[in-house]
Design brief:
By secondary structure, the protein is mainly α. It is built from two helices and no strands. It has helices at residues 8-22, 24-55.
């Protein structure tokens, strides 16, 4: 058993299907967009915390 009951071979099969459907270039763009969104979210959280501390 792997992560969440999914075997490693099944994960590889799913990854292969995703690459075939989306293609390598589009998959790269999706990854970059996701990373930028996570970075923006973290910066927003930090900004909110500093604003909250300044008010106190």
């Amino acid at each position: 058993m792997g992560i969440l009951g999914i075997r490693p071979l099944s994960l590889l099969l799913i990854l292969a299907i995703v690459i075939v459907i989306f293609g390598g270039k589009r998959l790269k763009n999706i990854g970059q967009d996701l990373a930028a969104a996570i970075k923006g979210f973290r910066e927003g959280i930090k900004e909110e915390q500093t604003t909250k501390e300044e008010k106190e």
